[in-house]
Specification:
Length: about 425
C-alpha cells in the first residue's frame, strides 16, 4: 500500500513537472518575426492616431484613444524594436529550465497579478499588432527589474559594488530659481548591465480618452510604467529605490513604479497623488517626488509602513538620493545615522546627497544650465553623474538618462547613456496638444 501511494505521489509530481516544462516551452517559443517598414503613424479609429518619432537617441511615441487603442498603436509603431528586444535580450532571463528562469517566471506571475486593468488593456492591445503574445510582452516589461536583479542587486547590503539603482533628484523654485518658477532635474541610475537596453530609450505620451490624465513617461520601449512622469495637470513625479535604507518585501504590496504611473493617470493635484500612493502599500521600499508648479514633496515609502510626506530641506528646494530622512523602524541606514555625510563608506547615496546639499550653499540662483552642469558632472568631480568607472566611489552602475526642465512651460532637456553628449530639447506640453 505504501509503495502504491509512493508511486501515485511520484506520478503526480512527474505529471506536474511535465506540465511545468510544457508551459515553459510554450512561453519560450520563438515569435514569428517579419521585419516591417518603420511606420510613422498608426490609426485605430477616427482621430485616434498614434505617432512615431526618432529624435536622435530617443524614441518618442504619442498615443491616444482607449487603452486598447493605445496598445495597438504601441505594438504597431515599434513592432520591430519589440521583436529585437524579445529575441536578443529576453532569452537570457527566460530561456531553458534553470533557477534563474524559474525565478523570472515566478516574478512575472506576481507582476502579472499586480498590474491594473488599464495596463492589461494596453498589453492586450499590443498583442493584436506586435506579433507577440501577452506573456512575451510581460517578459519584455520585466527586463529592467530582472537585469538589475541578476547583475547583483544589493538592496540588503551596505556596499555599492552590486549594481542596485541609485537616482538623484533636485527641484528649485521661487527666489532660488532663475526663472522664478519650478525647475526640476532627475538622473536615472541603474545597474551597468541595463545598458544593454541603450538602443531602446523611450518617451511615451499616453493620451487616454475618458477622464484619465495625459501622461508622458520616460523609460525603455516595452516597459509600460517608465521611471519618470509628467502629466497634463502640471504634475511631475519620479521614482527612487529605497531598499538600501529599509530592506525587505511585502508580498501584499504593489510595485512602486506602476503605482506612480497609475497615480499620474488619475491625480489632478499633489494631494490626490499622495492619497493614491497612501492607498497602495509598497512591495519594496521606495521614494517618490511629487511636484507641481508651486511646491515639491518627497514621499518616503518604506515596506510595511505608511508613507511619510516631507517638505524640501530648504524653503525653495527639495532633493533626495536613496537615503531616507524619516527614521523608519528597521531602517539600516538613513541620513540621520550614516557614518559620514561627506564620504560615507557604506553607501555613496549620502555622497550624492552631500554634493547636492553643498551645491545649494554655493549658488544664489539656479537655472537649467546650472542643473545640467551639476547632474552631468561625475561623482568624482563633485556632481551626481555615474560613469560606471569612478575611481573614488567604485560602483557597478551608470546614469541611464538625465532630464532637466521647467515644469510650467513643459520645456525640458534630455540626455541618455547611448550618447551623453547629445542633449535633446523636448516640449512636453506640445505633445499633449498634438
Amino acid at each position: 500500500m505504501i509503495i502504491l501511494l509512493d508511486l501515485v505521489i511520484f506520478a503526480i509530481v512527474f505529471l506536474a513537472g511535465v506540465i511545468l516544462v510544457f508551459k515553459f516551452c510554450i512561453y519560450n517559443q520563438k515569435a514569428d518575426y517579419v521585419h516591417y517598414q518603420q511606420l510613422t503613424n498608426y490609426q485605430t479609429s477616427g482621430n485616434n492616431i498614434g505617432r512615431f518619432e526618432q529624435n536622435e537617441t530617443l524614441t518618442i511615441l504619442n498615443l491616444c484613444g482607449s487603452y486598447s487603442e493605445m496598445g495597438k498603436q504601441y505594438g504597431a509603431l515599434v513592432h520591430n524594436q519589440l521583436h529585437e528586444i524579445y529575441q536578443k535580450i529576453v532569452p537570457e532571463y527566460f530561456e531553458g529550465i534553470s533557477a534563474r528562469s524559474l525565478l523570472s517566471y515566478i516574478l512575472r506571475l506576481y507582476y502579472q497579478f499586480k498590474i491594473d486593468d488599464r495596463e492589461r488593456e494596453l498589453l492586450q492591445g499590443m498583442v493584436k499588432t506586435s506579433g507577440l503574445s501577452y506573456q512575451q510582452l510581460l517578459s519584455i516589461e520585466m527586463l529592467p527589474m530582472l537585469i538589475t536583479l541578476y547583475s547583483g542587486f544589493n538592496g540588503d547590503k551596505l556596499t555599492d559594488d552590486g549594481g542596485s539603482g541609485h537616482c538623484s533628484f533636485l527641484s528649485v523654485w521661487g527666489n532660488l530659481s532663475k526663472t522664478g518658477s519650478m525647475l526640476i532635474a532627475r538622473n536615472l541610475d541603474l545597474s551597468t548591465a541595463v545598458t544593454k537596453l541603450d538602443p531602446y530609450y523611450s518617451l511615451v505620451i499616453y493620451k487616454p480618452s475618458g477622464n484619465d490624465n495625459s501622461v508622458a513617461s520616460f523609460g525603455f520601449l516595452g516597459f509600460i510604467p517608465g521611471f519618470t512622469w509628467i502629466n497634463d495637470k502640471g504634475l511631475f513625479s519620479e521614482y527612487n529605490d529605497g531598499r538600501r535604507s529599509v530592506p525587505g518585501f511585502n508580498l501584499s504590496g504593489y510595485i512602486g513604479l506602476n503605482t506612480a504611473f497609475y497615480a499620474m493617470l488619475e491625480a489632478k493635484n499633489s494631494a490626490e497623488f499622495i492619497q493614491y500612493v497612501n492607498n497602495h502599500p509598497a512591495f519594496v521600499s521606495n521614494f517618490n517626488a511629487i511636484v507641481d508648479i508651486n511646491d515639491s514633496f518627497t514621499i518616503e515609502h518604506a515596506v510595511k509602513t505608511k508613507p511619510v510626506i516631507l517638505k524640501g530641506q530648504k524653503p525653495e528646494a527639495n532633493f533626495f538620493t536613496n537615503l531616507y530622512r524619516a527614521n523608519f523602524e528597521h531602517a539600516k541606514l538613513t541620513m540621520n545615522n550614516c557614518v559620514d555625510r561627506t564620504r560615507d563608506t557604506p553607501s555613496y547615496a549620502s555622497v550624492r546627497y552631500h554634493h547636492i546639499e553643498s551645491y545649494l550653499t554655493t549658488i544664489d540662483k539656479i537655472g537649467v544650465s546650472d542643473l545640467k552642469q551639476l547632474f552631468s558632472t561625475p561623482l568624482d568631480d563633485g556632481g551626481v553623474y555615474q560613469t560606471g568607472n569612478s575611481s573614488n566611489y567604485p560602483v557597478a552602475e551608470v546614469t541611464n538618462y538625465t532630464l532637466i526642465g521647467e515644469l510650467a512651460t513643459g520645456k525640458f532637456i534630455y540626455s541618455n547613456h547611448r550618447n551623453k553628449d547629445i542633449w535633446l530639447e523636448i516640449n512636453i506640453n506640445d505633445y499633449f496638444k498634438k
